[in-house]
Write a structure and sequence with these properties.
single chain; alpha+beta; 4-stranded mixed β-sheet; 3 helices; about 25% helix; Ferredoxin; Thioredoxin-like_sf
């Protein structure tokens, strides 16, 4: 990453925060962790390996507070929120379209 003057700075170009919150089974709100049989964070990391991008970081997050929308991620610095309902389809598309090409994947956006 470079600053406006072209100097290299420490940090990442993008951060993907993946909700991995786990609630007790009796909790009134569902949790992202239980809504997917897949390890979403690991799937994002594996998909990103195809592009050899080192300045994108996939992080675990606690509750992102959109539990009812399905497994949730947020990408910064854009602040774009996605629901990953179909990991096999959604993750490759989010990685290629958003993280690599810079385009929002509208069909996965969380509706407020």
């Amino acid at each position: 990453m470079k600053d406006p003057k072209g100097r290299k700075v420490v940090g990442f170009d993008k951060h993907v925060f993946v909700c991995e919150n786990k609630r007790d089974s009796g909790h009134p709100r569902e949790c992202c962790y239980r809504k997917s049989k897949d390890d979403i964070k690991t799937l994002f990391k594996k998909e990103l390996e195809y592009y050899a991008k080192e300045n994108i970081r996939i992080n675990s997050a606690g509750c992102l507070d959109f539990c009812e929308q399905g497994p949730t991620i947020v990408i910064y610095p854009e602040g774009v929120w996605y629901s990953v309902m179909n990991p096999e389809k959604d993750i490759p598309e989010i990685v290629k379209e958003h993280l690599i090409d810079g385009n929002v994947v509208k069909r996965c956006l969380i509706e407020l």
